[in-house]
Amino acid sequence: MGPSAKALALAALCGLLCLSQASAASSRRIELGAKKFEYSQREIRVKKGEQVTFVIRAEDFEHGFSLPDFNVRADLIPGKAVEVTLTPDRAGSFTFLCDNFCGDDHENMSGTLIVED
Q1: What is the CATH number of the domain that holds 46?
Q2: Is there a cis peptide before residue 37, judged by omega within 30 degrees of 0?
Q3: Is it the case that residue 112 has pLDDT exceeding 60?
Q4: pLDDT of res. 34
């Protein structure tokens, strides 16, 4: 590969990285807190096709965040913000939940993502 081909490949790679970062920066950000035994929002509404980034913080314990219908899962560590980005491709009501046992009322630690057309 000659010098001009390498330069062109490098420029293309830089362009892709910039597009990826711009895309993440343009997504709607939704703050979500997690503590025994609840999320700070029980219901979240978004539009189908709208890119959203959940910024999730565990406040007291190592929780989990699972949105099974969109194959999304994250470990939540106290004091650390975790970002999860997705673009819902279908409308409906979808359950998100804690999937890391956090105590006696763990089974009620859930919420609903409502995706509207």
Answers
A1: 2.60.40.420
A2: yes
A3: yes
A4: 96
Per-residue pLDDT of 5-51, as tens digits, reads 444 444 444 444 444 444 455 899 999 999 999 999 999 999 999 99
Q: Does the residue 5 lie in any domain?
A: no
Residue 8, φ and ψ in degrees, nearest 5: -65, -40
Residue 76 in any domain: the answer is: yes
**DSSP for residue 59:** S
Q: Domain tally for the chain?
A: 1
Q: What angle do CA 7, 10, 16 make, to 5 degrees?
A: 145
Number of H helices, E strands in the chain: 1, 9
What domain range includes position 96? 28-116
pLDDT at 89 over 50: yes
Q: Which among 81, 68, 67 has a CA at the least distance from the CA of 33?
A: 81
Place of tokens 């409906």: 92
Residue found by looking up tokens 């096709």 in the block: 49
Please check the confidence at residue 96 and state whether its pLDDT lies above 60: yes
Q: Is residue 100 part of a domain?
A: yes
